[in-house]
Design goal:
Keywords: Membrane, Transmembrane, Transmembrane helix. This protein has 111 residues and is mainly alpha-helical. The protein has two domains: 49 residues, no CATH class; 54 residues. Strands 2-1-3 form a three-stranded antiparallel β-sheet, with helices on one face. Strand 1 and strand 2 form a beta hairpin. Helix 2 crosses helix 3. The chain is elongated, with a radius of gyration of 18 Å. The chain binds zinc ion.
Length: 111
């Protein structure tokens, strides 16, 4: 399940979480029409967020990878909520660390 938010940096407001990109467009359009007369605020942000409410585009690649794995694991338990379960966050860290360790072992064995 994907989650999206719209943020207006002029008003310093963020939309509620929506689950469909079309709903995200509607949030942005409604805000622009209602508050800014159809103008597009500078630096507005709209896009997919993780279960912690962070924009994927604003995360470092490693943090984004961890967030995507933890999101996927948490969605196995409950798709409707926000936040990561502790075991999903730990599982994502173990998976990334294990993959890195395995890669190092394979490289060391090949040399
Ligand atoms: Zn605004």
């Amino acid at each position: 399940m994907h989650r999206y938010r719209y943020r207006c940096t002029v008003c310093r407001t963020t939309s509620p979480v929506v689950l469909d990109p079309d709903d995200l467009d509607a949030e942005g359009t409604a805000h622009r029409q209602g508050v800014h007369g159809g103008h597009i605020p500078d630096d507005e942000i709209a896009g997919q967020i993780d279960r912690l409410g962070r924009w994927y585009a604003a995360l470092s690649p490693l943090a984004a990878l961890h967030a995507r794995i933890a999101d996927g694991l948490s969605d196995l338990r409950d798709e409707k909520t926000m936040g990561h379960y502790w075991w999903a966050s730990a599982g994502a860290a173990l998976l990334i660390g294990g993959t890195a360790a395995l890669t190092l072992l394979l490289i060391a064995a090949a040399l």
